[in-house]
Design goal:
The chain is built from one helix and five strands; from the N terminus they run βββαββ. The protein is an alpha+beta fold and 70 residues long. The protein has one domain.
């Protein structure tokens, strides 16, 4: 995985988190998975591009999307 890649995962305290693979810290927590995906794409574009990986509530990868930078 590349440094810029971002994951969208269910957040234990509620909502959906945008985080790096190393999961040192959460970039953002939003109310819905869709909002978190939108925020992750925005972060990726600002970083010059990367991979968006979305996990469903079951822990399985639902979506993988390459996002180009601005």
């Amino acid at each position: 995985m590349a440094e810029n890649d971002r994951w969208v995962v269910e957040y234990p305290e509620g909502g959906w988190a945008v985080e790096r693979e190393d999961r040192e810290r959460v970039s953002d927590v939003l109310d819905t998975q869709e909002l978190a995906m939108t925020r992750a794409r925005e972060i990726l574009r600002n970083l010059g591009g990367g991979e968006l990986i979305v996990k469903g509530r079951d822990g399985q990868i639902r979506v993988k999307d390459t996002v180009a930078g601005d």
